[in-house]
Amino acid sequence: MTQNKFNLDFESFQLLLLEMAQQRSVDELLKLVTSSLASTYNVALARVWMITPGDICNTCNEYAACQDKSRCLHLMASHGLSIDNKTTWNTIQHGAFRRFPMGVRKVGRIASSGQPGNISAISGNSDWIADRGWVKKEHIASFVGQPLIYKGEVLGVLAMFTRIALDQGALGLMRMIADHLAYAVSNARAFEEIKRLKRQIENENAYLRKEVNIAQSFNGIIGKSNALHEILQQILLVAPIDTSVLITGESGTGKELIAREIHSRSKRAGHPMIKINCAAIPKNLFESEFFGHARGAFTGAYKDREGFFQIADRGTLFLDEVGEIPLELQGKLLRVLQEGEYQRVGEEKVRKVDVRIISATNRDLGREVTAGRFREDLYYRVNVFPFLLPPLRDRKEDIPLLVNHFLALTSRRLNRPKPHLTQSEIESLTKYDWPGNIRELQNVMERAVITSHLGKLDSGISSIAHLTVSTTARGVQTTGQIDKGGILTDAELRQLERENMIEALRVCNGKIYGPRSASEKLGIKPTTLISRLKKMGITLEDWNGSN
Ligand SMILES: Nc1ncnc2c1ncn2[C@@H]1O[C@H](COP(=O)(O)OP(=O)(O)OP(=O)(O)O)[C@@H](O)[C@H]1O
Questions:
Q1: What is the CATH number of domain 226-390?
Q2: Where in the chain is the domain with CATH 1.10.8.60?
Q3: Could you tell me the pTM of the whole model?
Q4: 243-260 pLDDT, tens digit each
Q5: What confidence tens digit (pLDDT) does each residue in 373-385 have?
Q6: Cα–Cα distance between 69 and 60 in angstroms, integer?
């Protein structure tokens, strides 16, 4: 083997090109090239600089010389060994030459011109040498620098210092390596980009899957607003733990719906959730309703009676309008919540109970405490985990979804075609402030389905549009002033539902379960149909008779 030649034999050269083609990481690729060249006999140092945005301009040695701070040459790979075998030059982190401005010094000039820079007799070209001491000490005889060009664009510079003078053959080899390297770099970059996009898509998919899962698993709770999304997340958080929950929100914002969702996701789901409307209980009956009474405890107490607490044992008690509980009872309620014990009215015996409390209020319960109408200790007890449901006017992006949901739901229930709303109707509905919140929207959509059947579609909807305009014009909130045109009374609505069910039974010949049954036609569960038939007092004669 000749020692005065650049000794990259054909086999090693071929192997290097093959390995380069297989690399999918730019870093690994550049390391492969510089380490292979540096391990070749007579090569002192091999380096690659790539053009990327300027990063360390403030501390860069070449700051003053740099014209274009938006980009420069970054040292990306370096391999070399000193002549005494004691020092390697494999780091890219430090050193005076880790950045070159475009057009500055030999590496910068190669990059800006796109032309190779070969100095085979280095001593006669002293202006090309930055560190003469190093060149002398390391017996450097030649420098070769090749631009890395891909599709006409200079990507960087491959350079090599050798301890022998380079001949044309060696320069030709370097040219081929550089060309091949430029292609391999662009391939590796494409692979890295694909990998990055794949990772990004995977992350996005994981995120969307999570969102879809949440949306699907909350299929009765409609909406896409951030506010609702946060509430759904909180439900997931609080449902499995047994803490008391206080849901605050205006009437019709979905407090009961949220309470039911929390219960159904809790470990108590196999037991009942008992809803108590505290506003509907006469003051003198609270205690007996809550805790039950013994026979003879008061006039009219003809037999023992269990209270809501007992019925809800191991389940959940939903205290709707919790602020309405009289002060006298609040202390007793606190005792059950703290100790899990209570007594029936007119009975000494202390009973144990295990109940989770979910309360709801449309008042500011904190203010009720300040006003002395609600016990502070009870407040803290029921308000361990607060939910604040925003009114519908503060989450308007949910309105179109809710409109669509209730139209579909009611059309299915009444077996009517789903009315189509125009864009401007949907816009009007979205502009409207919905003082009655989701319940009001639900009612208006039910009416829209019915009036559409009566050939008077959109009378309810247009009145909302009208209402929106008049509300805005007057700058005040108008509640429930929808005109009567096309709107059914509650009794008319029930009658229509009744007729619809009878019609479904008649068409299906009284079949309630399975394919082509009335429940299938109505889009409800057979058990729901049976309970509605019972509730409405619909019998066999009704649908037979109407035949
Ligand atoms: N996000 C929602 N998606 C679908 N339906 C909803 C949603 N929120 C509420 N609803 C429906 O709106 C109606 C009113 O909701 P709910 O009874 O839970 O309100 P509330 O705040 O408890 O009212 P109130 O304070 O008057 O008792 C119900 O029929 C409920 O199913």
A1: 3.40.50.300
A2: 394-545
A3: 0.53
A4: 999 999 998 999 999 999
A5: 999 999 999 999 9
A6: 11
Ligand 1 pocket member 252 (CB < 6 A): yes
DSSP secondary-structure letter at 422? P
Give the ipTM of the model, two decimals please: 0.97
Pocket test for ligand 1, best of 262, 407, 438 (most atoms within 8 A of CB): 438
Find out whether 59 and 16 touch, Cβ atoms under 8 Å: no
Three-state SS string over 344-394 comes to CECCCCCEECCCEEEEEECCCHHHHHHCCCCCHHHHHHHCCEEEEECCHHH
Which part of the chain has CATH 3.40.50.300?
226-390
Q: Do 359 and 244 contact (CB within 8 A), yes or no?
A: yes
Tell me if 253 CB under 6 Å of ligand 1: yes
Q: How far is the CA of 442 from the centre of ligand 1 (A)?
A: 9
Q: What are phi and psi of 382, to 5 degrees?
A: -85, -15
Quote the ligand 1 centre to 498 CA distance (angstroms). 24
pLDDT at residue 444, rounded to an integer: 87
- For 10-193, CATH gives 3.30.450.40
Measured distance CA(360)–CA(261) in Å, rounded: 14
Residue type, 74: H
CATH 1.10.8.60 fits 394-545, yes or no: yes
Q: Whose CA is nearest to atom 31 of ligand 1?
A: 257
Contact 249 CB / ligand 1 (< 6 Å): yes
Burial of 231 (0-12, 13-18, 19+ CB in 10 A): buried
Which helix (H) or strand (E) element contains residue 65? none
Q: What is the CA radius of gyration of the chain?
A: 40
Tokens found for residue 115: 């032309």
Select from 363, 173, 204 the least CA-distant residue to 278.
363
As annotated, the residues of the chain forming the CATH 3.30.450.40 domain(s) are 10-193
**Ligand 1, residues 214, 234, 235, 256: which to mutate, most atoms within 8 A of Cβ?**
256
Residue tagged 């009474």 (tokens): 293
pLDDT for residue 125 = 57
Cα dihedral 56, 57, 59, 62 sign: positive
Of 121, 122, 113, 78, which Cα lies nearest the Cα of 96?
78
> Hey, is 460 helix, strand or coil?
helix
According to the per-residue pLDDT averaged within each range, which of 107-121, 245-259, 417-431 is highest?
Answer: 245-259
Kindly state the tokens that stand for 474: 């007057």
Short-list 2, 6, 5, 51, CA closest to 177:
6
